[in-house]
Amino acid sequence: MNCSCCNRHIKHPYHWDGKVYGKQCWIKHCLPELEAIRAQQDDERLQKRIITSRIYQEVFKQKKVRGIKNEFKLKFIPSIINQVKKGRMLSNKQMDLCSRMFNDKDYRLYFTLRVQSGLDDPVTHLMNGQLTPDDLEITNEEAAKLVITYREIPATPEAIGSTINEHEWSL
User: Among 19, 55, 96, 138, which residue has the fewest nearby CB atoms (within 10 Å)?
Assistant: First the structure.
């Protein structure tokens, strides 16, 4: 087996992007590309985390705390709002605790904000009954059209690649 870059014989090949590389060529040509992909994925993950933290903050800002008698919850909710206001993200445990404190109204607001920010697909929440067309401020006909369009997309990877650009996904 020969390296696709330098054409030398390889005992232990490295495969990348459908080609075969030797160790040095892989380090020289493929590793920087892989690191760039990982850096981009890290940036996307960070942005999603920041947006999700702000969504939790917004839900807690609109939460009515008058009926809450638990002292921990009364201290926790303002601390989450202040933490995000200072520009710090929430940990996984904090997000888990936040979502456990949600009631139905909070969940609707949470899912609506996730859809509006582009983190979630509205069709999924409409089909699962987590949101109604009123929550997304669209008519029942537009919601039905979204769900029908979503169901028309074939499930094979080849078909998805050819039809994904043909459908309108924004509200």
Answer: 96
